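re: ur msg from earlier - yeah i can do the 5-thio-alpha-D-glucopyranose complex, just paste it... oh wait u already did. ok heres what im feeding in:
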Amino acid sequence: MSNYEPKAEHKFTFGLWTVGNVGRDPFGAPTRATLAPHELVYLLGEVGAYGVNFHDNDLIPIDATTAERDQILKDFKKALADTGLKVPMATTNLFYDPAFKDGAFTSNDPRVRAYALQKTMNAIDLGAEFGAEIYVFWGGREGTESDATKDPIESIKRSREAMNFLCEYVQDKGYGMKFALEAKPNEPRGDIYNSTTGHMLAFIETLDHPEMVGVNPEVAHEHMAGLNFTHGVAQAMEAGKLFHIDLNDQAFGRYDQDFRFGMVNLKSAFFLVKLLEDNKYDGNRHYDAHAFRTEDYEGVKDFARGCMRTYLILKEKAEQFNQDAEIQALLAEINADDGAMDAYKGAYSADKAAALKAVDFDRAALGARGMKYERLDQLTVELLLGVR
Ligand code: GLT
Ligand code: MN
Ligand code: MN
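and the outut:
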């Protein structure tokens, strides 16, 4: 049995902004001191993470002098070398500064849109300097409070123009990075464009270089929209578009909570881990979450260790599910196929269609079949509760 220790092969990563979260909320001041980026790298090294991700301004403050920037980079590089941590992903902060109060790429002000492109190119350069292979776009302010203020079709066009420009920038520089678009339905804006992973998948196909662009779904964001996260991730995986993932947890119907992975919806966390592991997802498992405001930095380490440990326990549970004789026998029975319908499967032909139209189905028998899903789900629950 595994001891649930994180290893490099698990690719567990954390953003500087996650373990560096100081516990500020809309109603209260920080409860933890600000740690420097290099201090956060040592903290992540201590808990056994594989990598650290950053927004440009998590690493280099927006108003840093050249001397400050050089010192930060020096300290950060030393911490990476000392701990062996990688930087697999980078991103741009296009939401904090007041300049972005009406969005970045979709702002109504052309100067803001141009500044957002400039800031992103610089941040891509910074990510490339650290070998980041995935570049995330979370358009937290790309939306509205009132649709009187912005044309939603124009906003889609502006988003597309920005993505096309930046894809070519990366190609021009020869960085070989891929983009991962992250959806969120609301917060901080009243409503955000491309509000779910499904919207993003459709948007990507309209870009000039769709092969460079995938998604970065986040548990909490799909739950905020009331959706089944595992289904959204499955659709992205099946389309070859799961470039990155933001793991955390979130109670349905609440504000953006960014809780420790598996804290709220253990059962859906299990099906998510099972999906990722069964289908050999080999990207980063990034925790975009933070510790409760009640914690000090020991509590932050408890939080980070907990995220990884819960994932590994659920991974073991998924293996147990796949090996459980009773569960597997039920699944085989549920999915049984005697071949009687083979002649009607697959690609269309006129003959096949005519033959299928002539079949006499026993509709009552089809509807009368018991599916045994109650039994299967109860076995799953018992497995998760540790009594199998
Ligand atoms: C911010 C947001 C996250 C995004 C981060 C990347 S920033 O914390 O809530 O969901 O993934 O920009
Ligand atoms: Mn979030
Ligand atoms: Mn996220």
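cool cool. The chain has a mean pLDDT of 98. ping me if u need the other ligands too
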